[in-house]
Specification:
This protein is α/β, with parallel strands linked by helices. The chain contains nine helices and twelve strands. Strands 6-7-8-3-9-10 form a six-stranded mixed beta sheet, with helices on both faces. Strands 2-1-4-5 form a four-stranded antiparallel beta sheet, with helices on one face. β1 and β2 form a beta hairpin. The longest helix is centred in the C-terminal third of the chain and has 16 residues. The mean pLDDT is about 85.
């Protein structure tokens, strides 16, 4: 895989986001660490996916701004933004019969134009994306013939081919079994080791603790804690987020927090 350009800084400044007439996020400030995996966690309806949509410019802010290297992303052209930031939505859909390689080629679209048609360089990038996702032997297989984990890795490979230094993933492991979840998380960790900044919305706090370098915990549209999981995850935070009691242990291999003895919190 080609070296990516240095990871840009992505910052939310007094960001407010609305869902219809309802304000979901209000005056939120956030600076994402570059070259790391950040997980956004919190209960259903807390604003995780809304925040990600705002960071990706899918929805216009109701107030404040999202700044990419200090510039408002609302002022960037779609092509410029697509060369610097890639988004994998929660429910990505591809045309029936599309093969893995054909899907990944879509990642090269931001690099195409009237004077820049498909090239040997584009083909090389697609092959590198296939290799990065461990899908070289499945390149010509239809997406609908893959397992859930293979299919999700194919979608992530498409964002790899886009060659952006910043990846936003909305619940990339939803509906996957444990083995396929690990496939996806290991790919995400490999991308971070290559210098990419990865931000993912997750429901599973345990996975966020294990695979993320930086954790953003949200409740009711506000950030209630952020930092390395080993520093910010406490029984009090777990209770605040999910109204459950737990005992925290430490993974002897990774040093990440492990949740045990989980039960519904009493009033």
């Amino acid at each position: 895989m080609n070296e990516t350009t240095p990871s840009p800084t992505l910052v939310a400044s007094a960001l407010s986001m609305n869902y219809g007439a309802r304000r979901v996020i209000d005056a939120l400030d956030l600076a994402l660490p570059t070259g790391q995996v950040t997980a956004i966690v919190g209960p259903n309806g807390c604003g995780k996916s809304t925040l990600l949509a705002g960071l990706a410019r899918l929805h216009k802010p109701g107030g404040g701004a999202v700044l990419l290297d200090g510039g408002d992303i609302q002022r960037l052209s779609a092509r410029t933004l697509a060369t610097r930031l890639a988004l994998l939505p929660q429910e990505a859909v591809a045309p029936e019969g599309l093969t893995v390689a054909e899907l990944i080629r879509f990642g090269r679209q931001p690099h195409q134009g009237w004077l820049r048609q498909w090239s040997a360089e584009d083909q090389r990038v697609v092959q590198q994306a296939l290799a990065a996702a461990g899908l070289e032997m499945l390149a010509e297989r239809p997406l609908d013939a893959l397992s859930g984990g293979q299919r999700q890795r194919a979608w992530i490979a498409m964002t790899i081919a886009q060659q952006t230094p910043l990846l936003l993933l909305d619940e990339p492991t939803s509906a996957l079994d444990l083995g396929h979840q690990i496939e996806v998380f290991e790919l995400v960790r490999a991308l971070a080791r290559q210098g990419r900044t990865v931000v993912m919305v997750l429901h599973d706090l345990a996975s966020a603790c294990r695979y993320a370098d930086h954790l953003i915990a949200m409740r009711e549209g506000h950030i209630v804690a952020q930092g390395p999981p080993s520093e910010v995850v406490t029984p009090a935070l777990v209770r605040t987020l999910y109204q459950v009691e737990c005992t925290l242990l430490t993974d002897p291999e990774t040093g990440s927090p492990l949740l045990a003895n989980i039960k519904r919190a009493t009033a």
